[in-house]
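FAQ: What does a multi-protein file look like?

Like this. Sequence, then tokens, then the next protein.
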Amino acid sequence: MTDTTQAAPYLFGYRKYWAQRFGTAPLLPMTRAEMDELGWDSCDIILVTGDAYIDHPSFGMALIGRLLESHGFRVGILSQPDWTSAADFKALGRPNLFFGVTGGNMDSMVNRYTSDKKIRSNDAYTPDGAAGKRPDRAVNVYSHRCREAFKDVPIIIGGIEASLRRIAHYDYWSDTVRKSVLLDAKADLLVYGNAERQVVEIAHRLANGEAIGDLVGIRGTAHFVKTIPKGYAVKDSTDIDKPGALMPPVNPYQEEPACDLKPDAPSSLLDAGEHAIRFDKLLMRSQRAKTVLRLPAYEAVKDDPILYAHASRVMHAETNPGNARPLIQQHGNRQVWLNPPPIPLTTKEMDGVFDLPYSRLPHKAYGGANVPAFEMIQHSVNIMRGCFGGCTFCSITEHEGRIIQSRSEDSIIREIEAIRDTSPNFTGHISDLGGPTANMYRLACKDEKIEAACRKPSCVYPGICPNLNTDHTPLIKLYRRARALPGIKRIFIASGLRYDLAVESPEYVKELVTHHVGGYLKIAPEHTEQGPLSKMMKPGMGTYDRFKEMFDQYSKEAGKEQYLIPYFIAAHPGTTDTDMLNLALWLKRNGFRADQVQAFLPSPMATATAMYHSGKDTLHKVNHKAPDIYIPKSVKQRRLHKAFLRYHDPKNWPLLREALKDMGRADLIGNGKHHLIPSFQPKGTVPETGKTQAFKTKYTGLDKQKPGVSKSKVYGGSKGKGR
């Protein structure tokens, strides 16, 4: 089993598999005919994905496929197979080692449905944007078809869809708590996170003759166990984070002894080496790596939102690779064992992954079809991964981790040169140098020992940690070197900027604003009010104001008229009608108009999702007596909060008038500059009578409704003024 203190082997240090003799494929094959051209009689590994196959490192299956190929394995791709039968899953024959299954770069449910649960009309990861090319819950469906095609072949699931469903999780689309996807998919093993280390180790161990059932204890994986492994102690998670008295009383551990038992207490459930323990400081130092935390069983968390919130809190506390312990959760008569996160890749390993021989093009089978996601990222460069921001509504941290993994400057420059020299439609413009954020490149804790021991959910909330290095010098140096390359006309920064970090480096802000803003710059205050901001773990508007001053100053010095594009969230847990009204007034006062407003979509495992489901502030200890937080969850409430963000749209005025009257703010209805919305209605903008009634409802502010978040893109005029 995994020891949290062990060092990770070098990613490219394995002895290559014998099939390396076949060399590098121009493109990983998607048909038997392509396999024949390569001289293959079979594939060692077949990757099944819900995306079009783009041979580009921004597409997960291409990255994993090329990485496995570099280790000598023959890798085939089944891209968007017909899931209505097993026929397509037999197209490349039986894989010698395993099927690797993912829903794609996006969760298949998020990909298909809007936050209002309406079916989307397009799919950015499909040729010509066609919708309906992947099933709902694609990981489950693809896994079942793989099993139907070749019953005895191991199935390993991964990607963001599996990653965010690795334990019992709240599912927004069914409004239920579902089991770990490992059970629903009937897979043998789950890998979570970016997964390079896990996948490479799994492939080599299977190639060396080990059985899939023997691959236990690999970091970044989840699997089934029958008994607690020898040498492991069990810690009851409620002894770490008590969820409070249950009403009615239930035992979430199915008769498992409580943690106040002595380590060797006799019990029929502990005969296989399982024993409950208490921690003192000495025990924590000596036994932490050999302790598993038992979460409440699936049967308990699915029926009790407070226990669900408790399990979420414990899981999020065990995400630092330096100190995380394994987790175990009962699902009926099966137990899911979740190993600690993988050790982050070193810069050398990151370079190795991104320097692989990608063609950076869609597979030739698509002809001239346009894949919207590829069009967006084909001339962008990923310079890092991970995020230590800890925003509660975001899933990046749950998937990629909080520790930043950065490429070397040389590797990034090589990729820019490759784009310049090989991309058939390159015009001299790099669309982005970024990642999950624009400006966390090479930022890390100042002390590795402190980093390994830290259990904070964020390095920048409620303020920037004094142990965090915020030096942007390496990023400034990278920008200058990149834009000096021959043939490079302009480099834009399109990734979202963490402006609370940027203000720590005025030199960086000046560099960015002077050379890398294409008229607009995206930032994400998310809200103006402290109530929702405190539930998001986001800084207040004072930091935004400081950044805006810098942005305006350096834009003026550069002789440029440039605009900020702030993103805001509505209907986030903790957001009241008054909060949204105040945000709308701020938007109007500053001349901003929202575009593309969307409602909050609670993604599996996110902290804000636990708030949405439980109605409690899960950033603090939760129990049944804890006060509820206001969560706009109903369709009517979410519609109102979206309308506040688009206060300027005449179609929203009838709804807003009704709400403002009910809130006692009819003074904001009128035709003056100080009013939010006018008292008149332009001809042709009033919904039909029947539809108007659907908008009407009483908005009483802090009512008893439980748990919802709406994201909007806001365009403003020069220096924050209207345009």
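And here is the next protein:
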Amino acid sequence: MAGLFLNFFKVNLENDEFDLSNISYSDYESKEDYFELQDNYPDHQFYRVNSRIHYWSKNGSSKLLPLNSIKSRVNSKTEPKIISKIVESCLMNVLVNDERLEVNRKSHSYSWDVLSSNNILKGIKGLAAFNCYNITPRFIRKNDNVILGFTISLRTKFKFLNDRKTLEANGFDTVGLKGDENEIYPNTPAVKRYVEAMGYSAVYESFRKTHFNNQKNYEGIFKFVSWLNSNIIPKVKLPNGSSLKPITFYNIPSTEFNHQILRRPKRYFYSGQEDTKNLKYYNQKVKEYKPASFDEIDSVVQIGVICPKKHEGRTETFLKTVKNRLETELHIKHITFVTKFIEDERLESYASVLYDEELQKSKTVIVVVSEDQKIIPVKQSPYYYCKAKLIGMGIPTQLIRVETVNTGVNSFAMTNLTLNIYAKIGGTAWTIEKEDKLKKEFIIGIGSTTLDDGNHVLGLAQIFDPDGRYLVGDCAPVSTFDNYKENLKTFLKRIIKEEIESASISGSEEFRLIFHIYKSPSSEYELSAVKEVIELFREYSFTFALIHLAYGHNYRLFYGQGTQKVSKGLYLPIDDYEALLNFVPHSNLPLKIRLDGRSTFQDLQYLSQQVYWFSDLSHRSYMPAKRTVTLMYPSLMVALTEKLKEIDGWDFDRLKHINDKLWFI
């Protein structure tokens, strides 16, 4: 059985040298002129590199175009971008002209979707499913060699066979589903509602079980590659008169790729204790060794509760379990509850108790709401109203749904719930080790969320190590790109200045700034802000690293032909600037870590291990997170902040009162 497999397929060329025609970009600088050039010669590919536009026939023709051209010779070693584009354009030209397929280039990317016409979903009237293969061209530099190829992945694409009116006439409620006037988009919520409403749940679940697994995904990719090699590759004609050889693959380790398993960090508890008894579960370890912040939390902690009267008895029983967990597992000596039972679930009823003197003395407040309040607009939401007003008083809140109280919470979920509450009162259940460094190091996470209008809103989170252990520092929303650079610059200036003043650091000290960013770094924002901050502290020495962390890519990892798990912590360098890191053993989608080449600190493995260790810092659950907190925390924080802004009277500056608590988890 095969071992580790990466879905990168190598392109093999008979001849990698091309004599290409090219024209001056200055003659086609406007978008209109450039698009007209492409429209006039649809059989040719035009590709700009700096001041020249190279072009070639996508079908191997040697036809000359009536353009003011010159010739230049390129090969894969000198111009891998151009050669990769040649291979892509000629391959996709054959696929686009295959009438059995629907081929589309994905917007704002370099990848293509190839949709099969064969419906693989049987037994559900009005719904179809098709295999959709994503092809993304890629070239990799390995020492002095350049490897050309494609990543190929597979997903299932659903399609409603009837328009909106027909669906509604058949008794399907389309209210709230995304789409336009004529159709409903077949996203997961729409498909799930359809199969449940029309009585096809069993058929759908059987289909998912059969098709939505790594083994089926692996088999589908190889079946498609075999079809490409047999039916498409022989038809591809390159502009130098040569052909493509069949695309190939290798299991890992190979001459191009190798991997290793990064170790998990040690967790430290009260007084720096480690687990010496090899306890199985993390909550057992906290219970045995006490939380890291054991002597920093008051012996008596008061928690407020706001709950409608009709849920009083069940809520009291539920709170007894919460109290027991906080006292036994997290070692708070005594929990007291201040309960405010309100008349009903109207916003006015919740608001009536918010300024109660007893409630305002609480470390955190539990707000009990019903499930149907999730769809209430933020401005009318009791939960968001309570959260906004109480945060203004420096009091975080914990949401508990009535349905959770009714059904009870399983032991695992209750353990995580009490951990959340502990974090919100300012507690730290554990810290993790760090490797000793010669330089002061700041790690800044930059995450984002997408608003209903499609705009991105950004947030920052600082992770720092004042006592030799990683701890979560303060977080700050950044808002939109309009003020992103200035806010980032202000944030960096403040944390560096505070560190210099608090530690009495001399000018001989060196600093390292490491940025975990949800998008590709740019000269306009991140790089510019960093350079300006470094200039402000010119008497000190700085190095910096900008790394882009993303799941929006086309790499997939399989083990044992998809029948076995990919090890957690598996680290696979693609080249000197890019690596894959696996967080979830059951998933075939790893995290891609891309180091910006303009960084002055370039130890990719060191940076990747740091990213991996930060997943152990999440205090949403005892289990390591599925992604690093440096992106998760600022994303959660800014998403919640944007909602709070909708509450009348909300003041953003009030967040400064609670930046030592994880109020947003």
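Q: Is there any per-entry metadata?
A: Some entries carry free-text notes. For the entry above: The chain has a mean pLDDT of 88.
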